[in-house]
Amino acid sequence: MNRTSYKSMQRKPSSPKLSKGTPDFQLLVLTLLLVGFGVVMVFSASSNTAAVSKDFNFDAFYFVKRQLMWAVLGFIAMLIAMNIPYQFYKKWFLPLFIVTAVLLLLVPYFGVSINGARSWFRLGKISLQPTEIAKIAIVLYLSALITKKGEKFREFKRGLFPVMIIVGFVIGLIMLQPDFGSAFILAITAGIIVIAGGANLKHIFNCALVGLLGVITVLGINMLIPSSGTDGGYRMGRIQSWLDPFHDAQNASYNLLQSLKAIAHGGWTGAGFGQSIQKLLYLPYPYNDFIFAVIAEELGFIGTTIFLCFYAYFIFRGLLIALRCPDIFGTLVGVGIIGNIAIQAFINIGGVTRTIPITGVTLPFISSGGTSLFITMASVGILLSISREWNRVSQEKTTRKTTVEHRKDYRPIRPV
């Protein structure tokens, strides 16, 4: 038998071609379930208000149609982000950050004022909120910068201090609108990323102490001179209503009291879907800031607990994906994204239930909102991109292990 025939008779193990990793199926399904549930609850919470208001064209489906539109756009953005390798954002975070900073600088002068905050640009019938873009821009900025600095990030002058200056600048622009709820969320999110990035805990503590003293100073000035700020008295009223909901039941405490009444009316099993009483022009913005109160009233303690379990598992799954990522940039981005969603959800639900003072932030995935829903779903797309990398690495390890086992079992055919 010639050499060619001998080689052709050898059975060599073949290495299957590796494809892109698959996105995390559980996170994808949980996201779609939360968004779908949000659309349903927006309809339930808004239909009565919209049907009797000229501002909404007497259209009971006014809010749900907008929510569906943004959900579809957000789904498309999520699919696009999911198919872009997350390392791409490490190179292009700076243009996004610069655009966001410019928008934040312009919105106090050219934006429209809603509920005392000049936080939106009006583009026809579409409203754009730069603060929502800033949340993901800060996450990408911090993650890329910390990754680039490496061990230098543990140094205060060359590491943490320059980062805090930039973050403080962005937070300051948001407070000028004024939007203290979003500024607080952004500050906590930045703190989580900084801690996860390995900053010196002593430096973090000192920065947190300075920030706390600043907040106490601002609150003290507002308490002594309520007219010193555009809405200082309003913010202090929220704190007072949190401490004593009955001290000004028709003004400062009205929103919180109506929210607590809705939760109490829900009881264990709820009044039933669409049967909320408080949403009938009693509870302000039942489709937005106070949508959780409507959920509690219509679904009761049992239904609300199930909803919160789904939400908690979504956060757990997102955190697991972030921690599994094979590189520090992906881990920091994932922790920042899921941390931002978790903090905002806690602040919204905490305010509605009187766990903390009301801040006026929305409930991610659930509340009616355009920019917020779109950016949140796009952020989940980045998380799914991170999960694809983990699955790809896992698949590669499995393939290598299989190849080694095939080679161990390989036995050449002896020539006759």
Describe the 3D structure.
- By secondary structure, the chain is mainly alpha-helical.
- Helices cover 68% and strands 3% of the residues.
- The chain is globular and about 60 Å long.
- It is a multi-pass membrane protein.
- Peptidoglycan polymerase that is essential for cell division.
- Its EC number is 2.4.99.28.
- It is an enzyme of class 2 (transferase).
Strand order, main sheet: write it out: 1-2-3
Portion of residues within helices: 55-70%
Q: How far do the termini sit from each other?
A: 7 Å
Secondary-structure class: mainly alpha
Helix segment count?
Answer: 13
Low-confidence stretches: 3-18, 226-230
GO molecular function: lipid-linked peptidoglycan transporter activity; peptidoglycan glycosyltransferase activity
Family: Belongs to the SEDS family. FtsW subfamily.
Main location: membrane
GO cellular component, one term: cell division site
List the topology elements.
Elements: H1 3-8, H2 25-51, H3 62-82, H4 88-110, E1 112-114, E2 117-123, E3 126-128, H5 130-149, H6 156-175, H7 180-196, H8 201-224, H9 232-243, H10 254-266, H11 291-324, H12 328-352, H13 371-409
Antiparallel strand pairs: 1-2, 2-3
Helix pairs in contact: 2-3, 2-11, 3-13, 4-5, 5-6, 5-7, 5-12, 5-13, 6-7, 7-12, 10-11, 11-12, 11-13, 12-13
